[in-house]
Amino acid sequence: MKQGVLTHGCVRLLLSKGHSCYRPRRTGERKRKSVHGCIVDANLSVLNLVIVKKGEKDIPGLTDTTVPRRLGPKRASRIRKLWCLTSLRTQKIKFQSFCLG
């Protein structure tokens, strides 16, 4: 999908440097490529979206549950910040007990 193409189907545009959806390989090169218009209709099978702002109501199954972090921090200062620690020795003890369960 390309912003500014006001159609709901695919069109073939002549794209040059600076356009999205195209990276020229040579100086001054232009190429005709198929791009989809920015109008959403029933013909689209998948539409990827990102939630930018939370509204008044929760979306069931999406914003009503919290997912825990899969990976923790690796840098020592960020580990200390996460666990509210001050010294490195306390950090090692806390991290070992966290890993062992």
UniProtKB/TrEMBL annotation:
Query: Membrane-crossing residues?
Result: none
GO cellular component terms, A-Z: ribonucleoprotein complex; ribosome
Keywords from UniProt, A to Z, are: Ribonucleoprotein, Ribosomal protein
GO:BP terms for this protein?
Answer: translation
Q: Name one GO molecular function term.
A: structural constituent of ribosome
InterPro entries with a match to the protein in the record: Ribosomal_eS6 (IPR001377)
Identify its protein family: Belongs to the eukaryotic ribosomal protein eS6 family.
- Protein name as catalogued: Small ribosomal subunit protein eS6
Q: Could you tell me which species this protein originates from?
A: Colobus angolensis palliatus (Peters' Angolan colobus)
